[in-house]
């Protein structure tokens, strides 16, 4: 028969193997949970990074379209009286609509007050567009620059520049905040 010592030894070895196997299973289970949690955090981080990138790109595009629109106004201000209705539609409205599209795309990343600021600038741009349209409709190629300059103009470049500076500062703050996040 099997001696008591051998039986105790087998039970002891079996207990040790069972404990080791149980410990390994328990350790593997906790590793699995830890890995799942880490992957979930990485996935959340990747989503956040993606949306921060979209925000920065969207706001940068809004800024670029705003500047493009304004620079067109500035560059063509003195030539507005020579502009045809078709030029107005293609050039002035084309740039304005690009700005407006960028504004709508970026609006999801703006809070209510920031969107109000953007709408004020859009209103200033619309007033400028109206000015260009009036010039295109009421002047012809025989009109002189003096005729153009002597008109009662409702366009105020100082007001537009002031509003653009508010928007520039706002967009700069919104774009720089995520950049600080990525740098840190």
Structure characterization notes:
The chain has helices spanning 4-76, 85-106, 112-138, 145-149, 157-183. The longest helix is centred in the N-terminal third of the chain and has 73 residues, at 4-76. The chain is rod-shaped. It has a single domain (49-183), classed as de novo design (two linked rop proteins), CATH 1.20.1440. The mean pLDDT is 79. With 184 residues, it is an all-alpha fold. It is 84% helix and 0% strand. Keywords: Membrane, Transmembrane, Transmembrane helix. The chain crosses the membrane at residues 6-33.
- What ranges have pLDDT less than 50 throughout 5 or more consecutive residues? none
Describe the main β-sheet briefly. none
Average of the residue pLDDT scores: 79
Structural class: mainly alpha
At CATH level 2, the architecture is: Up-down Bundle
The radius of gyration computed from the alpha-carbon positions, rounded to a whole number of angstroms, is 34 Å
What is the tally of helical segments?
Answer: 5
| Percentage of residues in helical conformation | over 70%
Assembly of the depicted chains = single chain
Domains (count):
1
Overall 3D form? rod-shaped
Write down the CATH class. Answer: Mainly Alpha
Question: Can you count the beta strands?
Answer: 0
Order of helices and strands: HHHHH
As for the CATH topology, it is de novo design (two linked rop proteins)
Strand content: under 5%
Gap between N and C termini: 72 Å
Short description:
This protein has 184 residues and is mainly α. Helix content is 84%, strand content 0%. The mean pLDDT is 79.
């Amino acid at each position: 028969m099997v001696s008591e010592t051998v039986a105790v030894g087998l039970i002891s070895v079996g207990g040790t193997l069972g404990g080791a196997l149980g410990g390994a299973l328990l350790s593997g289970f906790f590793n699995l949970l830890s890995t799942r949690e880490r992957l979930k955090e990485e996935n959340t981080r990747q989503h956040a990074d993606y949306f921060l990138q979209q925000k920065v790109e969207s706001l940068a595009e809004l800024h670029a379209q705003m500047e493009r629109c304004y620079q067109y106004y500035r560059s063509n201000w003195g030539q507005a009286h020579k502009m045809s209705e078709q030029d107005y539609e293609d050039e002035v409205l084309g740039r304005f609509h690009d700005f407006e599209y960028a504004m709508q795309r970026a609006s999801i990343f703006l809070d209510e007050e920031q969107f109000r600021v953007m709408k004020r600038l859009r209103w200033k741009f619309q007033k400028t567009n109206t000015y260009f349209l009036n010039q295109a409709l009421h002047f012809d190629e025989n009109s002189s620059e003096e005729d153009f300059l002597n008109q009662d103009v409702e366009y105020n470049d100082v007001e537009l520049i002031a509003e653009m500076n508010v928007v520039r500062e706002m967009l700069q703050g919104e774009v720089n905040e995520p950049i600080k996040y990525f740098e840190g």
